[in-house]
Amino acid sequence: MNKKKLLAIVINNPKNVRYVDFVSLIEAFGFELYRTKGSHNIYKHPKVVEILNTQNLKGKAKTYQIEQFLDYVEDYGLEMEEYHD
After folding, report:
1. Which of 2, 45, 61, 62 is geometrically suited to a Cys-Cys bond with 22, CB 3.0 to 4.6 A?
2. Cα(49)–Cα(66) distance, integer angstroms
3. Beta strand 40-44 pairing with 52-57
4. Are 61 and 22 in contact (CB under 8 A)?
């Protein structure tokens, strides 16, 4: 799916988002997998002080983690990288 279209969908309804789509979206914004601990995947971004913790819950992303990601995008003025579309 087109990342810009996916972002619009996630912004309008952060519930019921497939985990693989969420990971694709956060990587498009420059987050990189830092480490995995149990069911937690920890992502870091060079401009973001905090980490982004994600979990795959039966193929879906957790709503609060999506909202946290969207807050980081807004708070830090992150933009989608050009080559991710």
Report:
1. 61
2. 17
3. antiparallel
4. yes
The answer to whether the predicted template modeling score (pTM) of the entire model surpasses 0.90 is yes
Q: Which phi and psi angles does 46 have, rounded to 5°?
A: -60, -25
Distances (CA, A) of 26 to 11, 85: 13, 13
Domain that holds residue 69: 3-76
Domain membership of residue 83 (yes or no) is: no
Q: Distance between CA 64 and CA 43 in Å, rounded?
A: 15
Task: Determine which helix (DSSP H) or strand (DSSP E) holds 70, and give its type and residue range.
Answer: helix 63-76
Contact 84, 69 (CB under 8 A): no
Total of domains in the chain: 1
Q: DSSP strand E in 1-85: where?
A: 32-37, 40-44, 52-57, 60-61
